[in-house]
Amino acid sequence: MTRVIAVTGKGGTGKTAITTLLIRHLTRGNKVVLAVDADPDTNLPETLGCEVHRTIGDVKEFMHEERDNLPPDVNKQSILESKLYEVLEEMPGYDLLVMGRPEGSGCYCYVNNLLRGIMNKLVDNYDVLIIDTEAGLEHFSRKIFKQVDDLIVVTDGSRRGMGTAERIRELVGELETDVAHIYVIANKVTDSTSETIIRTAAELELELIGMVPLDEMIVQRDLAGQPLMELPDDSPAVKEIENISRKLNL
């Protein structure tokens, strides 16, 4: 059964970096991994070190424009499925899909309904689906993805950041989203902030599963636009992600 992990958080907290390091860890095991960049502000391909030229948004745009031009006896779901495989990037150790966003106007409910069934079928081919989400929970409320086993909220560890994690937890309940577990990862943690982060998480009853330290190796790679997949094993962030992965039974 596919393990579904979604990573969310406010912009600037480093959720894409955390997603990348989790993918890095998974690809070093024997897991078959599907990575999905569901953030319209696409950054995951860059941190993974790959190029993407077409997105699911492009496919949705095609189906939206052509739906009335297709013969009534044509299996539209089969067409969408074949187009979806065209935008699936096969990389060493994982496959990548970028959601993107359609450029046109109008309602895409029709295409979303087709996409929902295809995505759930596709996901079954993998051991782990890991999603780099946008700040909100729109993709979950639309039920494009099946049940989420682990929702990881990345925060900078500040009181405001922890408050955001608390609101996301509340929103999950309000949307009646099928999320089994919610965890918090504090990112860019320093020695002077770690105790306060632990205390705040306890006060808000958040399950803090790890604290990724401020890592100069990541800072330098971000400045140079270099992929994070190539971080060495002695990177402090990589080591903490390994600890977190063990807690998640990955």
UniProtKB/TrEMBL annotation:
GO biological process annotation, one example: negative regulation of cell division
The protein's matches in InterPro entries, at most eight in alphabetical order, are given as: CobQ/CobB/MinD/ParA_Nub-bd_dom, CooC, P-loop_NTPase, ParA/MinD_ATPase
> Which Pfam families does the protein's record reference?
CbiA
Task: Give the keywords, sorted.
Answer: ATP-binding, Nucleotide-binding
* Gene Ontology cellular-component annotations: cytoplasmic side of plasma membrane; cytosol
Which part of the chain is the CobQ/CobB/MinD/ParA nucleotide binding domain?
5-227
GO MF annotation list: ATP binding; ATP hydrolysis activity
Instruction: Provide the protein name.
Output: CO dehydrogenase maturation factor
